[in-house]
Design goal:
Blueprint: E1 7-9, E2 19-22, H1 29-44, E3 50-53, H2 86-99, E4 104-106, H3 110-113, H4 128-133, H5 138-150, E5 154-157, E6 162-165, H6 190-201, H7 209-216, E7 225-228, E8 237-239, E9 244-247, E10 259-263, E11 279-281
């Protein structure tokens, strides 16, 4: 497997067009296809979009025999009432990445990490990685593992003042280069182990943690907003810190509130994420 660069800094010229940010699709093929149509619509319009994902593309409801179909939202509708179509989703995603090199990028979420040495996830199956790989050919399993191993942990977008992570990365790191010491397949020790665990498992920030993290990821004031996923949010977007926002594009959001970001200007803070402009509804 190729060892991933854990931090990818997006050059300002790569952000000349709209930057789309999505989170946690978890095998929902219809939501992926909707996101793809939005991206390709911007491509067709000559707008040169960049699409970034926080990861967790894989592993959805287990089927009629289980799958937590009884988990209801505040509106009484099932939050996870869809079929797991991860194999078809990955084929579509990988084809799109190959057709638009460098313009469709993803972080490694904890569900991808489960395939390349991380903790086995158990949201819908006792071993979701094994359940998915049993549905794929040997060649597809090898491709999946190689691609996931090449995906980073953090995107920095200095032109927009934005950082994107999967989970709520620990503020204990001293500088971004510490993340490069992490090995997805382990073993990791000390701070590397702590940082990897936080990036893959933490759901939110304590007081001041997100602000300290942003200051340690670049020169003072360069990064002003952090976007992450990993958790469910019925409203699609909510603060998870003074400068951090939880994005829920697909998994765990009510259909009419599923959200993605379309960034076309620098953000000074969470108040700059405006409904209908930076914050878009997937099915609106």
């Amino acid at each position: 497997m190729t060892r991933a660069a854990k931090v990818v800094t997006i050059a300002p010229e790569a952000c000349a067009g709209p930057v789309l940010v999505s989170a946690d699709v978890h095998g929902n093929l219809a939501d992926f296809e909707r996101l793809r149509a939005i991206f390709l619509g911007l491509v067709a319009a000559g707008r040169d979009p960049l699409w970034l994902s926080v990861g967790d593309w894989v592993h959805g409801p287990a089927g009629d025999e289980g799958g937590r179909r009884d988990v209801l939202g505040r509106d009484g509708a099932a939050l996870y009432d869809y079929a797991d179509e991860t194999p078809a989703l990955l084929r579509g995603l990988f084809a799109l990445m190959d057709a638009h090199p460098g313009r469709v990028l993803s972080l490694c979420g904890n569900h991808e990490h489960a395939h390349i040495g991380g903790r086995r996830t158990r949201k819908f199956h006792d071993d979701e990685a094994a359940a998915l790989e049993a549905r794929l050919s040997a060649a597809e399993v090898a491709e999946l593992r190689a691609r996931f191993a090449s995906w980073p942990m953090l995107f920095r977008l200095p032109a927009l003042g934005v950082v994107v992570t999967h989970g709520a990365l620990s503020a204990e790191l001293e500088h971004a280069e510490e993340l490069e010491e992490i090995v997805y397949a382990g073993p990791n020790q000390g701070r590397a182990a702590e940082l990897l665990h936080s990036a893959m498992t933490r759901y939110g920030f304590g007081p001041g943690e997100d602000e300290r993290l942003l200051e340690r990821l670049g020169p003072p004031g360069q990064y002003r907003v952090l976007v992450h996923g990993h958790d469910r949010d019925e409203e699609g977007w909510s603060p998870s810190g003074a400068r951090a926002g939880l994005l829920c594009t697909s998994f765990g959001a009510r259909r009419e509130r599923k959200a993605y970001l379309q960034l076309e200007r620098p953000l000074a803070g969470l108040d700059d994420v405006r409904e209908g402009l930076e914050l878009r509804r997937l099915w609106g």
